[in-house]
Specification:
By secondary structure, the protein is of the alpha/beta class. 30% of the residues lie in helices and 27% in strands. Helix 5 runs parallel beside helix 6. It is an enzyme of class 1 (oxidoreductase). One of its GO terms (biological process) is diaminopimelate biosynthetic process.
């Protein structure tokens, strides 16, 4: 039995995580934390408290699942990792320096953490297929589409997709060399010559399309989550496998 505490338990993702953990025979929901007190409506009700450190010390979880905000997640990890718990993190917005810091912090305290920009298995497969396609179609642009309450852009999924594609394709300039934006930002962000475009609209969950262009043809690889339930198998997998790791594991694909 793996004891799990959920941080951000009253949020859209956090509440789904609570339900998933509660329903799994080998996972036990032992605590819930959010910025405000409340109750998760499971069984007789799971009390939600606001003090992360106190909740960890009281519940003694094996794993803390964090679905909070980019502006607070590093502070959360600086609190939880020294307490010797493992972490499964779905919050995005990490810099390279952040990733280096939490890896060192986890190793110092003999624990581990999974940071996954996307827990959907479809997204993991999409990235793998995109890397295969990039070997033959080096001209590529990424369009990611999220709900309008998402705080960071581009998404962590778009960033890691571009990073993985860059491992199999040389950096290159795409488009006309004399291209000029008549409105700043029209061509999107740039990563190793790849353009990344972010859409923020009500109605989306977390869709992404990777478009490859070749002579006389285009190839599109996309993923379109219908609801947040699609992330839960990946979160549960992370809880089960991170307890046997050391330091930082970046990306759910590392545990598949």
């Amino acid at each position: 039995m793996i004891r799990v505490l959920v941080n951000g338990a009253l949020g859209r993702m956090g509440s789904e995580v609570c339900k998933k953990v509660y329903s799994e025979a080998d996972l036990e929901l032992v605590g819930a934390v959010d910025i405000k007190e409340g109750t998760v409506p499971l069984g007789d009700g799971v009390k939600v408290t606001t003090d992360l450190v106190a909740a960890i010390e009281a519940a003694k979880p094996d794993v803390v699942v964090d679905f909070t905000r980019p502006d607070v997640v590093m502070g959360n990890l600086r609190k939880m990792l020294p307490l010797g718990v493992h972490a499964v993190v779905g919050t995005t917005g990490f810099s390279d320096a952040d990733l280096k810091e939490v890896d060192e912090l986890a190793r110092k305290h003999n624990t581990s953490l999974l940071i996954a920009p996307n827990f959907a298995l479809g997204a993991v497969v999409m990235m793998k297929l995109a890397c295969e396609a990039a070997k033959y179609f080096p001209h590529v642009e990424i369009i990611e589409k999220h709900h309008d309450n998402k705080l960071d852009a581009p998404s962590g999924t778009a960033i890691i997709t571009a990073q993985k594609i860059a491992e199999v394709r040389k950096a290159m300039h795409q488009g006309n060399p004399d291209e000029k934006e008549t409105m700043a930002g029209a061509r999107g962000a740039d990563y190793e010559g790849m353009k990344i475009h972010s859409v923020r609209l009500p109605g989306y969950v977390a869709s992404q399309e990777v478009i490859f262009g070749g002579q006389g043809e285009t190839l599109k690889i996309s993923t379109d989550p219908i609801n947040r339930e699609c992330y839960m198998p990946g979160v549960a997998l992370g809880c089960r496998k991170i307890v046997d790791q050391a330091g930082l594991v970046y990306g759910l694909d590392k545990l598949l």
